[in-house]
Design goal:
The chain has four helices and eight strands; from the N terminus they run E-H-E-E-E-E-H-E-H-E-H-E. It is an alpha/beta fold. The strands form two sheets. It has a six-stranded parallel sheet. Strands 3-4 form a two-stranded antiparallel sheet. The protein binds pyrazine-2-carboxylic acid and zinc ion (ZN).
Length: about 200
């Protein structure tokens, strides 16, 4: 089975959102058109409580994009984004959600961030997505979404470690580039780990 895995196509990552990723809205029509080619479509959603430790606003004296240590792990501080049950956490309105079979949420534990759709950043807890995909006999994942240099990258690396074949559709991913070159480095890293980058 071949599954399309859509990463965090939520309003807060779209232009005008709290953590806007440039060009993220351009992904939506591309993935809608790809959907009929797949046996199964699965999506992740960033799904934080208001008091999440990745929000700069929850660390007095700290600013957005500062680096801290959160429960023993390095953590970039972000604007408040994808708060559970808010409009910012909803899928982009033009995404054809009717074909999505399952949504896996991540980032609910206030003390740890979760860029990968499979595990939190400390690999302490699983979201259940890997187990579920294997139970559906999925062997190959085609991944699209945001952000190339965060959630897409860590999802791809975990998918490879979990034994899935992984394709990444370049035109259907967008990144943050907090540091110039972050997206290019993320693509190199994913490719070196065994992901196939498709155009
Ligand atoms: C993401 C930063 C914080 C992402 C989520 O979806 O790439 N990035 N939370
Ligand atoms: Zn987040």
């Amino acid at each position: 089975m071949k599954a399309l895995l859509l990463i965090d196509l939520q309003n807060d990552f779209m232009p005008g959102g709290a953590l806007a990723v440039p060009g993220a809205d351009e992904i939506i029509p591309i993935v809608n058109n790809l959907m009929p080619q797949f046996d199964l479509i699965v999506a992740t959603q960033d799904w934080h409580p208001e008091d999440h430790g990745s929000f700069a606003a929850n660390h007095p004296g700290k600013s957005v994009y500062d680096q801290i240590v959160l429960d023993g792990l390095p953590q970039t501080l972000w604007p408040v984004h994808c708060v559970q049950n808010t409009n910012g956490a909803s899928f982009a309105p033009d995404l054809d959600t009717r074909r999505i079979t399952r949504v896996f949420s991540k980032g609910m534990n206030q003390r740890i961030d979760s860029y990968s759709g499979f595990f939190d950043n400390g690999h302490r807890a699983s979201t259940g997505m890997g187990e579920w995909l294997k139970a559906q006999n999925v062997s190959e994942l085609t991944i699209a979404g945001v952000a190339t240099d965060y959630c897409v990258k860590f999802t791809v690396l975990d998918a490879l470690k979990e034994g899935f074949r992984v394709n990444l559709i370049l035109e259907a991913c967008r990144g943050v580039n907090l540091q110039p070159g972050d997206v290019a480095r993320a693509l190199d890293e994913m490719q070196a780990a065994g992901a196939v980058i498709l155009h």
